[in-house]
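Progress against Task 2.4 (sequence-to-structure conversion) is shown through the following example record, which the project officer requested during the mid-term review.
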Amino acid sequence: MLRAKPMELRRVGGQNRPGGPRRKEKVLNRILEHPLIRRVSYEEYRNKVRHVYDGPQGAILAACSLLSLHTTLGARLFRERRFDLRGAQDILDVGSGAGQLVRHVLKYADAESRITCFDLSHEMLRRARHRLRSPRPRFLAADLTRLPFSDGSFDCVTCGYVLEHLPDPRLGLSELARVMMPGARMLLLTTEDNFSGAWTSRVWCCRTYNRKELRRICEALGLQWRQELWYTRMHKVLRAGGICAELVKVP
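Structure tokens generated for the chain above:
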């Protein structure tokens, strides 16, 4: 298994945490956000996340995505070709969960494209297989910070609401950049540091990201933001729906 290069660590609250610039946070978000990711080591937090998604919360994830309209609105991104899957030959779906995004990938990607799905939770992978009932995707359990793929393996990546389960986004983004071919595209969706994002953090024990800060980190890793995407015009006006962007790996 190929592993990411170790990142510089600093001590925060008695725990080893990834180094780098401190995140600027809004006071209200700091109060509402779930504090676990800040208080324990990454290994402890990863085990907690796996437990959450293996359990009842993971079992209702698909229903939650449907009720929140993320499933329906997410489909529009692919159907209207705002994120165009045509021409992609090797697609990686990151943190596949219950198969919410890969269901759209199966529908709108070319029939001959190869699709690989991974998740930290074996139970979520089982649910995704059962839900999708398709022989096309290859499923495997993996950690976003230590991907078992060779450099430049994929020309397209979909990463939906996974990055917020990392204390530092570079732990995962650097690995995704490594396994992407030059010119490969990524659809990145993640929880933003606003009021609704803070409540999402409470429910799913995750963190949130500042849009400008995340963009700077992506571009420092060679992942250029081609465009910001919004589910609807109203989402753009209200700055709602979280961060959604198309990224391109700079050759």
